[in-house]
Design goal:
6 helices, two-stranded antiparallel sheet
Length: about 120
């Protein structure tokens, strides 16, 4: 993106920011980095995500070509989700954001605390 392009609604940079702005998108992608998982296994790995939100997130990631859904014809039926090659390309940026948060998270939380102590709203 060039500096004079801005952040138009159809800007590709904005598309990427939208993909990573949803907390659960990055978390689910990161949880799938090792191998395919069933939804119940993913919920166990992630923690704090409801079945409904996980389903919505997986559908959104599948719609964007970042995960695939494999249905196995078994009784009972088994479904697994796996990163696509495109989804794997986001692991580096997600890792970079995580490293930034690890390094600077205390500073951000301290700023939030100072702001709240001064009576400011988020």
């Amino acid at each position: 993106m060039t500096s004079d392009q801005g952040f138009l609604a159809d800007c590709r940079a904005r598309l990427a920011f939208d993909l990573l702005s949803n907390t659960w998108n990055a978390v689910v992608l990161w949880a799938l980095r090792e191998r395919p998982y069933r939804p119940g296994e993913l919920r166990g790995r992630i923690g704090g995500i409801s079945p409904k939100v996980l389903t919505e997130t997986l559908r959104r990631l599948e719609f964007n070509g970042l995960v695939t859904r494999q249905v196995y014809e078994e009784v009972p039926p088994r479904v697994e989700y796996e990163l696509t090659a495109l989804g794997r390309t986001l692991l580096g940026p997600i890792d970079a954001f995580g490293a930034w948060a690890f390094t600077h998270g205390d500073e951000v939380m301290a700023a939030q605390d100072r702001h709240e102590a001064d009576g400011g709203a988020p």
